[in-house]
Design a protein that fits this description.
Layout: H1 15-37, H2 41-53, E1 60-64, H3 70-77, E2 81-86, H4 89-93, E3 101-103, E4 116-122, H5 131-141, E5 142-153, H6 159-180, H7 183-191, H8 199-208, E6 211-219, E7 224-231
Parallel strand pairs: 1-2, 1-4, 2-3, 4-5
Antiparallel strand pairs: 5-7, 6-7
Length: 232
């Protein structure tokens, strides 16, 4: 069980508060470590996610769990009008973006129904206490035929890639993260993949939330996954 005392994962009923506190702590060095620990591949993954939206210039796009604004900056470069939402005050304080930022729970977005053209979310699916509520909320705020792009980590399919990925993600990431930032947080981040449903179940849950044309693709030799869909 992931709730055991030896696990870096918090008990389910404490997850939301524990994740918020963790991101508040690691916000100052979060961007630097992301670049180092992904060998800058995270930059290309976000750009691929933004391209997958295929929205007209000037479209309003909400980045859920925006952190320090990486996705907001990419959205602005693509000609979109981003808005960032996060519940970590520390992350919002460390944000480097000109986009409007709102502190809010992703499961209760402070936006009217059908008010945005796109939604992005990067590396946060496994951090939500109620993933289904968040994806359903994303569908609520999207206009008809609006687009969603969900980016997160993934387990590579091939055995050699999986071995390299496992060593890097579960050994190197906690070690380097512990030296530079917060050991507990960077033990949680690799372990938190346990919260991600298997691919088939994850896609089914996105469809159930109100999305069609749901497509799954892998990035970075399978180290990341991108799920896109269209609001029905």
């Amino acid at each position: 069980m992931i709730e055991t005392s030896t696990s870096p994962l918090p008990p389910v009923d404490e997850k939301a508060r524990a994740v918020e506190d963790m991101f508040d702590r690691i916000a100052p060095r979060y961007d630097v470590l992301n670049r180092v620990l992904t060998l800058r591949m995270d930059v290309g993954w976000r750009r691929a996610a933004v391209r997958s939206l295929r929205l007209p210039a000037g479209a309003r796009v909400v980045d859920v769990a925006c952190g320090t604004g990486d996705f907001c900056r990419e959205l602005a470069r693509a000609g979109y009008r981003p808005v960032g939402v996060d519940f970590s005050a520390g992350m919002l304080a460390a944000a480097r973006t000109d986009a409007p930022l709102v502190r809010a729970d992703a499961a209760r977005l402070p936006l009217p129904d059908g008010s945005v053209d796109g939604v992005t979310c990067g590396f946060a699916l496994r951090n939500f206490a109620d993933l289904d509520a968040v994806v359903t909320e994303c569908a609520r705020v999207l206009r008809l035929h609006g687009r969603i792009a969900l980016l997160d980590v993934n387990e590579p399919a091939s055995a050699p890639a999986r071995a390299v990925h496992g060593f890097w993600f579960r050994k190197v990431v906690p070690f380097v993260g512990g030296l530079v930032s917060d050991r507990q947080a960077y033990a949680y981040l690799p372990a938190s993949t346990a919260y991600l449903p298997p691919r088939g179940e994850l896609l089914a849950r996105v469809r159930s939330a109100g999305f069609g044309d749901v497509v799954h693709r892998t990035l970075g030799a399978g180290a990341a996954q991108l799920i896109t869909g269209t609001c029905r």
